[in-house]
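Subject: Transcription elongation factor GreA structure
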Amino acid sequence: MAEAKKRLLTYAGLKALEDELEDLKVVKRKEVAAKIKEAREQGDLSENAEYDAAKDEQRDIEARIEELEGILKNAEVVVEDEVDFDKINVGCTVKVFDITYDEEMEFKIVGSTEANSLEGKISNESPVGQALMGKKAGETVNVETQAGDIQYKVLEISRSK
């Protein structure tokens, strides 16, 4: 059997996933069990929309628990004290100048599990993340994206906030 792929996580990402898992197991499971019990008490389950919705929610919760347990089992936490901030790595915050669109941007490089573009967190596996990994301040990279080719100049690499 093939070994599961390691999931890179920052400590903050690990903590967030552990907190979500705890909430699902301790709070959400009990809430949905109460909904199922309440729906059962209404009688005929064959046409009970509340029961069906609660069972669907229960399946979703159990699937997410299984997914989180798999991620956490294969997690490799990036210890920021051991990260070389002379070059871009997971756990770094990087400030770049977008030469193509003439604007400054800042990204936090994270593992794919933590990526969230709305929060400025990009995956080390994304096209931009892959192009930036290992680069040093002053270097320029070209990135092929769905929106077209973009050129970035690395301005600064720092410890994530």
